[in-house]
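Sample pair:
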Amino acid sequence: MDGRLDLPDSYFYCCNLAGANFTGTKLEATAWKGCRGSKAKFKSALLNESKFESSDFNNNDWQNCRLSMVTFTEYKLTGG
């Protein structure tokens, strides 16, 4: 997946997004459930009002990402 997409209000269910590039992507009010996305890039992505549930996104790049009013439930967020 290449960055700079416009995907607001999208629903991601049980997706394998390992290594996906969401750099600069508009992802406001999206829902993510049961997804896996190690090493995905969310650099400068807009994720305001999104919900992440029961997902595993480890070792991601969240640099300059917008995360206002985002909720993480039963979520694995590890790495450095």
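The beta strands are 11-13, 31-33, 51-53, 71-73.
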